[in-house]
Amino acid sequence: MRALDRKLLRDLWHLRGQVLAIAAVIMGGVATLVMSLSTYDSLTTTRDRFYGEYRFAEVFVSLKRAPGSVAERLAALPGVERLETRVRAGVKLEVAGFSDPITGLLLSLPDQGEPLLNALHLKRGRMVQPWSTDEVVLSDTFADAHRFQPGDTLAAIINGKRKQLTVVGVAVSPEYVYQIAPGAMFPDFKRYGVLWMGRNALAAAHNMEGAFNQVSLTLARGAHEQDVIDRVDAVLGAYGGTGAYGRKTQFSNRFLSEELKQLQTTATVFPAIFLGVAAFLLNVVLSRLIALQRDQIAILKAFGYSYAAIGAHYVKLVLLMAVLGVAAGVALGAWFGQGLSNVYMETTFRFPYLDYRLDAGVILVALGISAVAAVSGTLFSVVRAVRLPPAEGMRPEMPVAYRATLVERIGLQRWFSAPTRMILRHIERRPLKSFLTVLGIACACGLMMVGNYQKGAIDFMVDVQFRQGAREDLALTFIEPTSGRALHELAALPGVDFVEGFRDVPAILRFRHYQHRTALFGIQPEGQLHRSLDSSLQPVAVPPGGVVLTDHLADKILHVKPGDMLTVEVLEGRRPVLQVPVLGITKQFLGVSAYMQQESLNALMREGNTVSGAYLAVEPGMEAELYAKLHERPRVLGMVANKAAIQSFYATIGEFILFYNLVATLLAGAIGFGVVYNSARIALSERGRELASLRVLGFTQGEIAYILLGELALLTLAAIPVGFVVGVGLVGILVVAFQNELYRLPLLLTPENYAMGAAVVIVSALLSALLLWLRLGRLDLVAVLKTRE
Amino acid sequence: MKPMPPDQANAIFVARGLTKIYRMGEVEVHALRGIDLTLNRGELVVLLGPSGSGKSTLLNILGGLDAPSGGEVRYLDHMLTGASEAELTRFRREHVGFVFQFYNLIPSLTARENVAAVTEISKSPMRPEDALALVGLGSRLDHFPAQLSGGEQQRVAIARAVAKNPAVLLCDEPTGALDSATGVVVLEVLEKVNRELGTLTVLITHNAGIADMADRVIRLSDGRIAEIHANAAKKRANELSW
Fold this sequence. Notes:
The structure holds two protein chains of two kinds.
Chain A: H1 3-14, H2 16-53, E1 59-67, H3 69-75, E2 80-86, E3 88-95, E4 98-109, E5 121-125, E6 135-139, H4 140-145, E7 153-158, E8 161-172, E9 192-198, H5 199-205, E10 211-219, H6 225-236, E11 245-246, H7 251-291, H8 294-303, H9 307-347, H10 360-387, H11 390-394, H12 406-412, H13 418-429, H14 431-469, E12 474-483, H15 486-492, E13 496-511, E14 514-523, E15 532-533, E16 539-540, E17 547-550, H16 551-558, E18 565-570, E19 577-586, E20 594-597, H17 598-604, E21 610-618, H18 623-632, E22 636-641, H19 642-696, H20 701-737, H21 751-776, H22 781-786
Parallel strand pairs in A: 4-9, 6-8, 14-20, 17-19
Antiparallel strand pairs in A: 1-10, 1-11, 2-10, 3-4, 3-7, 5-8, 6-9, 7-8, 12-21, 12-22, 13-14, 13-18, 13-21, 15-16, 17-20, 18-19
Helix pairs in contact in A: 1-9, 2-7, 2-9, 2-10, 2-19, 7-10, 7-14, 7-19, 7-20, 9-10, 9-19, 13-20, 14-19, 14-20, 14-21, 19-20, 19-21, 20-21
Chain B: E1 11-24, E2 27-40, E3 44-48, H1 55-62, E4 70-75, E5 78-79, H2 85-95, E6 96-99, H3 111-119, H4 128-134, H5 150-162, E7 168-172, H6 180-197, E8 200-205, E9 216-221, E10 224-230
Helix pairs in contact in B: 3-4, 3-5, 4-5, 5-6
């Protein structure tokens, strides 16, 4: 081994404390990157494999009812490769020992052979037997939530008739990876389930013998999706078709895609922040570290080493640190990534299996970014050191020129002891260095705030959504649109305090070339339960004659503003295409909606007072009795209880947030400690001689610690408010980056966020101070007498 | 205070059988091999010897910066041998002034503040201004080290060392980094301090020319005292040259 390389290893060993701290910073950045990207890759790969193996369809359409012969016409359409018809039925479910309303979706399975499309992955039990009349397969989320095992029974109200069902299997379908009850905001595994039963049995129960009301198909090679959709719609228009749509609009897939898109944003934004901060810190720390090696560089030059050889020596030194950090980061990131993937699998992505993969490209990216950050931080200092003539480099640096600080010049100096003046002047002497240190510590504070931001934001979103906007206790939908008189019957039920009707009409909204498939929501203008909110989150009445859009829907999806004319393609009844003016914008953090007055919507649809469902305020304590009454009413299809929905939402995402907070805390902590410790450690190297001189002159360890740690304390305290600003800025980036159809995050930080940010900095500083205190006890006093700096 | 033997009535330091062994890896270096020495109030003592003769080790032990491996050393009625780190810090703080070869001023403090840094933690110090006037720098109070020449920096260091009114001033090669004309000015200051304040001054040098200004010259060689020689007629610092 060459002498210079041996020096390299010794230097690394000698600097091991700082090497570890720097590696910790890199590790923090790399781990976030690897965790997010590997999770994204894994889930995407798994999804694609699952969709392929289980023949997920490409175009879907629901209709009222068509005779079996129509299927042959559809299958013969150009561009259709494989086509399957099904019977589907919205049902109410009864589970023994569970009194809350449960909504279900029953889908038919072919009585002979495997489904052509949307096949099931059986997790337990078996498929239904051909021609069986009461056997069902349950979706795994619903089965797990109620601990159903093959052999258990439950009841369903199909078309107003109660039917006893026997569970024979538990399965996952590519079509229902993500399950949400119609009208609900969040998945609720206990109160919504998808079930599959034999076609013959379901058709008999749902009056669909020899007919179908749902079609799935795949496209022939080279076929254009929109063309096929148009042809299908042309055929099914006569049978009450509600408009065919592609995978992009398919409910479960759309949500999965949105989730994946968010994960991808996470995989970009979070690591960008973490790695950016880590690179910045690396740069600062390393340039100072190399500056301290000035005399050694001069000696190497005096020996005759070339600039390039010396430069390469230091580049190797920092690259070894970077590689150490990247290796630790990849290992930690892969571990976190598997954890995160599993959390996703339990909550959102109910895939039957997970292909966890860590792409080599991800590792290369991490290595590249870290190496560039490390080397660029080093080169500047090395070049500066190498440029000095050797003789000059070996001489001590001239005593740097200090001057009285601003606070002293304005006459405050008599309040400061000599040590305090040393602290102040040292900070003011190197304003850039002090600033960078403050900024570095502030970044750790900011990162901590970002990591802990989600919990408070979600609380706020839920509060706005359910305590300001949708304040109903219960939302129910009727089997089909009904006269508004039905509301009186509801109001008369025991436990009902207040009833508000709504009308929702599935529709495609178009403006120029932008479009969005949603529903027009007719609510009461002066509604007490369901209200639209203005930009300051105050309830505001929906004006008559037009539509009020969620800000995100108007600005980001349809690109319309109040005054514009929207084209509304209704997907119900006679399917009119209408022009409706946009009258206003409403603020909503969860989902997107298009609101109208119910009367205006009824007028557009050329119908009388018609409602699709109702919002109910329920007297506390009366819920169970009311549910039972509603359950008995054949025209009431689905019910969503808000309180239960919120609870299940928190239960689902609680684990997720916990995981994210833990990761963020660990990483921000690692980065925070890395910066603070390195700053302090370098300050000690720079000032060790000065401090040892003071020890010789009779200063106690406590007194010199005051000088060193006082500076650290001052910079740390200064960094906390700066860190708050950084935190708000980073959260701002997150808020902008995370805007999507499912939710928009509010720019809102709680006192706890600030406290956590400050805490990570203070704990890091205290820990660093302790380590430094131990080092101050080992200062070599005798060496000071003999050596120059 | 217990009575002293007559020959030690004026003694500030009494060292008996001092040895110091450094372990450098597997090699033992005998820096001091048995030193017996008494240093008295008001004396100006020069420790002379080549590199490695043990003069710095001796000075460090007297100054409470190092502990001997054997023997004992007493400062007035305090036993320095076996004292704790905190006691040694207090000893340095209250009784010892140090002057280093490379001045070791605090660059971020002015001349006055460098002195004040020490007087702030002393019991009955001089005013920093008086200490600086004593070394002839009464007009450069508010200059930072970077604005002073090497000789001036060393004089600030001397002012800093004497401002606490120490009983002993320990100087390790105080002129080692200076040219001879500047060195003489620094020595004049040390001489003045010794004369006017009566501070026991111990000065390390390997420059035999400086020995002529001492009351006593102690020549060290290989960790032992080779010779103690009292100057019958000591020279003034400004008569020295090298």
